[in-house]
Amino acid sequence: MELSDYQSEARKTAIYPKKSKIEAVSYLTMGLTGEAGEFANKVKKVIRDGTDFDKAMVDELGDVLWYLSQLAEELGTDLDSIAAANLEKLRKRYESGKISGSGDYR
Questions:
Q1: Listed range (31-35, 50-54, 63-67, 69-73) with the worst mean pLDDT
Q2: Quick one: pLDDT band at residue 67, thresholds 50, 70, 90?
Q3: Measured between alpha carbons, how far is residue 94 from residues 69, 88, 91 in Å?
Q4: How many CB atoms within 10 Å of residue 79?
Q5: CA atoms of 54 and 52, how far apart (whole Å)
Q6: Share of the chain above pLDDT 70, in %
Q7: Would you tell me which CATH number, out of the four given (3.40.190.10, 3.30.499.10, 3.60.21.70, 1.10.287.1080), belongs to the domain 3-95?
Q8: What is the pLDDT of residue 52?
Q9: I need a surface site. Which of 3, 25, 62, 100 has the fewest CB within 10 A?
Q10: Cα separation of 38 and 46, whole Å?
Q11: Angle subtended by helix axes 55-74 and 79-95, to nearest 10
Q12: C-alpha–C-alpha distance, residues 94 and 65, integer Å
């Protein structure tokens, strides 16, 4: 499945406050951080209990992807463009020997 196809299909299930762009983005940001937190909690339990990664973690990643796709929608872009731009940024950092470290403008 292409990311753009996913984003288009996921949009059909998007039911959240959209009175303003800031309200929609704020709502989605809280949802994204909540789902990322749920994923982190599952990782913590794997470390603590010594169990294997399981389907529940993949399900949480799916929830993270849903929120990412809706944030992209609200920002007027798409996941394909975001992915391509990110890979280009990483390629440039790698080629210049600045893949590690911190800061937005390496």
A1: 50-54
A2: very high
A3: 27, 10, 5
A4: 20
A5: 6
A6: 96
A7: 1.10.287.1080
A8: 78
A9: 100
A10: 13
A11: 100
A12: 26
Question: Which residue type sits at 29?
Answer: T
- Confidence band, pLDDT 50/70/90 cuts, at residue 32: very high
Q: What does the domain layout of the chain look like in residue ranges?
A: 3-95
Cβ-contact 20, 74 below 8 angstroms: no
Handedness of CA 82, 88, 90, 92 (dihedral sign): negative
pLDDT at 106 over 70: no
